[in-house]
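Final report, closing paragraph on structural work. Over the funding period we assembled a curated collection of sequence-structure pairs, and we close with a single example.
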Amino acid sequence: MEEIKLANGTIMIPTKLVDCFIVQPKVHGDYRGYFMESHNESAFKKAGFSYHFVQGNESSTQHKNTIRGLHFQTEPYTQAKLVRCTRGIVDDVVVDLRLGSPSYKQWIMVKLSEENKQQLLVPRGFAHGFITRTDDVIFNYVVDNDYSYENDAGIIWNDPELGIDWQIPEGEEPILSDKDKKHPTLTKRGISFRY
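Its predicted structure, as stored:
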């Protein structure tokens, strides 16, 4: 699939995961700083991307080498996400968990930073996480469905079935929350997302 240019100048760059795109906003800059549209729903719709984002979230992570993930919500509260890093650098990881998808159980890692201003469009039925590469990271995202505590779920970050290479420096252990340490493997979770 080829890149798609939206009406507002944003470029949608396809990844090897079906329906997952790197989003490169059009950035207007001068001596004062810059301006960009972080999201434009009508431009998305004109290009065939029908997402209506209903909630915006922000997280702060103090230390580099911290992993947050792999997270998702189960039916009927699955969520698509448009994610970006507004301070520092992260490597963002997504996994296609949709049975029947040509990219089922495949993953990608995309560098998101305050400098490159790239975003990642993560469809419903994907697990999402990131590892911080700097201290003092701010991560922002919008979602197309409400948060549901009962449907909040995840899979373990180092599931051997997925084989994600988090590129953790030799001799170091990643920092994880107690919750993220306890997620089951994909097999034990028994995901039922459909493509």
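The CA atoms of residues 18 and 65 lie 28 Å apart. The mean pLDDT is 96. We thank the funder for supporting this effort.
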